Amino acid sequence: MESKSHFEDSPRGSDDESGMTLLGEQLKAAPVRRSIFQRALKGAVVAAALVCAVSVLYTAVAIRRLSSLSAVDFGDCGESRTVEEARAMGCKFDPMSWIWVRPECYDAELIADFMNKTDFSWHTEPKLTPESKVPMDIIFRGDHPKLFTQKNYHSVHCTVSYMMKKMHKAILEHRPIDTYLMDWVHTNHCEMVLLNDWMHEDTPCTPEMVCPTWVRATWTACKRY
User: Fold this and answer.
1) What are phi and psi of 146, to 5 degrees?
2) Among residues 120, 155, 162, 223, which is most buried (max CB within 10 A)?
3) Which residues, 6+ apart, have CB-to-CB distance to 221 below 8 Å?
4) pLDDT at 2 over 70
5) CA–CA distance, 123 with 211 (Å, rounded to integer)
6) C-alpha dist (Å) from residue 121 to 24, 134, 191, 215
7) CA pair distance 134, 100, nearest whole angstrom
């Protein structure tokens, strides 16, 4: 009886010992696998961070290089604000903006187009008499920094008819822009001109119904942004 019990108990004891041994090996292997996974995860994170850093650096360098290549300063028309200095520096007079501007910012085609579409005249006195009219060749030369003209000149000058079309062309064709077009003060000026028309706060007219306005030359710089 004893030997039978002994033989029956022996296999069960062997199974328990084998199970304990296998469980121990699994418990020992678990930290090893976790350690390998953690190292792999850290390596992947570091690699991704390096890729992102290199990508950002490359993009920043590319943008900086593109900006340095595309941004160009073409100079100005002088600090003394005289007709003589502007001419000596090679600048041209734009009668639709009434500015001295670098050749790179001078749009001869646009100026000719709108000068041909309009019938403006410029005068040395506000009554706009025929005797005070300045010849067009003198106007294009820019001899007179300040003159008088018809009031609706400002509306054409400020709206899509000229200034906005000039800016639109510059954006589409990546052309340089004069500082007068970029001047926020001038934008506010045009806003007031157009609002005054809309609210009928018009320039005082003469008894002969001549409604003049005056124009004053501006000396500008020219840049490609």
Assistant:
1) -135, 130
2) 162
3) 73, 74, 75, 76, 77, 102, 178, 179
4) no
5) 13
6) 104, 7, 23, 12
7) 18
Give the C-alpha separation, 46 to 40, whole Å: 10
Q: Is the pTM of this model over 0.70?
A: no
| Higher per-residue confidence, 217 vs 40 | 217
Give the length of the chain: 225
153-200 pLDDT, tens digit each: 888 888 766 888 888 888 888 889 999 999 998 888 888 877 776 544
Tokens of 57: 């650096």
- Scan for tokens 């403006």, then name that residue: 120
Cα distances (angstroms) measured from residue 74 to each of 84, 111, 142, 146, 163: 19, 20, 21, 26, 20
Query: pLDDT-based confidence at 20, cuts 50/70/90?
Result: low
Q: What span, in angstroms and rounded, lies between the C-alpha atoms of 112 and 133? A: 20
The string of pLDDT tens digits covering residues 22-33 is 555 554 555 555
**Residues 163/181, Cβ–Cβ less than 8 Å:** yes
HEC string of the chain? CHHHHHHHHHHHHHHHHHHHHHHHHHHHHHHHHHHHHHHHHHHHHHHHHHHHHHHHHHHHHHHHHHHHHHCEEEEECCCCCCHHHHHHCCCEEECCCCEEECHHHCCHHHHHHHHHHCCCCEECCCCCCHHHECCHHHHHHCCCCEEEEECHHHHHHHCCCCHHHHHHHHHHHCCCEECCCCCHHHHHHHHHHHHHHHCCCCCCCCCCCCCEEEEECEECEEEEC
Indicate the residue type of 150.
Q
